[in-house]
Amino acid sequence: MLNNSGKRLVIACGGTGGHLFPGIAVAEAWTAGGGEALLLISEKQIDTLATEGYGHLRFERMPSIAMPGLFSLKMPGFLLAFLRSFGNCRKLLRDYGAHAVLGMGGFTSAAPLAAGKWMGLPTFIHESNAIPGKANRLNARFSIAVLVGFEACARHFGSGKRVEVVGTPLRPSVAKRPSREEGLAFFGLQPGKKTLMVMGGSQGARRVNELVAASLAVFEAAGIQVLHISGPGDFDLVKPAYEQHPGAGELRSFCSEMQFALAAADLAICRSGASTLTELGYYRLPSVLIPYPFAAEDHQTRNAEIFSGPGATELWPQGDLNESNFAGKILSLIHDEERLARMSEAAGRLALEDASGRVCEVIKGSLK
Question: What's the sign of the alpha-carbon dihedral 34, 280, 343, 271?
């Protein structure tokens, strides 16, 4: 068991659920080993929602800084904001007595990592996706080691950088694995029906939500119940469809108890963020992945290919889907028991256990 008593770790993880939830998972593992953790998050609504229920952890909010193009007229303003954030982070790290800094991705991590490097602290980044974004390409310059979720990502950081494949940390609450019966009961769903879970990610997925809402009548007629986590931004968009079809299932804007949703589902429809894939693998859950088509460097498609290659998922490009073909494709898959069983087995083989512990061990090994 990790023993890091008295060691203080600062984790910069705000901006998206894909950064925040793995950061929370590492903080839970670090504090379980006797250490202390401070999580730096953004001022976005998703960070506020996602941190509810974690009163035992310490969070500090800091402004988000998005890097513009190199020759953008906004670059001078970005540099000034970065320098101001860099100074604030130096003071925070000094006052907190930090022993190490971990960045989970995004430009929210850049200033804390730069400040940590300037102070001579061990600094690390974690990249969950198959292809690193421009933020983590920059953040790698401030880090002594890069921790990656997928082995395919390692080559993007060059041969001169220490890279460790650790997986993507999973929140302890999600790692509990309740039974299917417990999951269905949590949402008031019927145990005798196939359950389709729809999750667009922490910030929703407009086109996926639209397609599911347009298919509710078909799903309801086929005896399929839908557990739909729309994201706060799209809740009002899809709510009228569920009011029109009250027997179609359960609609939530956000779900902080994802372990019950994952346990209840027979099939998931999701975007293909790295944290989502980690959860699908851990629960051996068959899925349809619809990558966000405008993700940087199309990294969501690259993520999805890691699961679709061995048969753990169906990869459906968003442009191939419409209101005429979507419901039929879902029904064909969810009723194919043999296909779902093969997908479940393949998903389970892709799961990398105890990523949080692996991250903490690497960090602990750098401390004196």
Answer: negative
Residues 6+ apart with CB under 8 A from 354: 167
The alpha carbon of residue 21 and the mean position of all alpha carbons in its chain are separated, in whole angstroms, by 6
Q: How far is 169 from 175, CA to CA, in rounded Å?
A: 10
Per-residue pLDDT tens for 21-47? 899 999 999 999 999 999 999 888 778
What the block records as the tokens of 296 is 């940087």
In contact, 89 and 12? CB cutoff 8 Å: no
Say whether 277 sits in a helix, a strand or coil.
helix
Q: What percent of the chain has a predicted confidence (pLDDT) above 90?
A: 71
Task: Tell me the helices (H) and strands (E) count for the chain, helix number first.
Answer: 15, 13
Q: State pLDDT tens for residues 270-291.
A: 999 888 999 999 999 999 999 9
CATH of region 174-349, choose from 3.40.50.2300, 3.90.230.10, 3.40.50.2000, 3.30.530.20: 3.40.50.2000
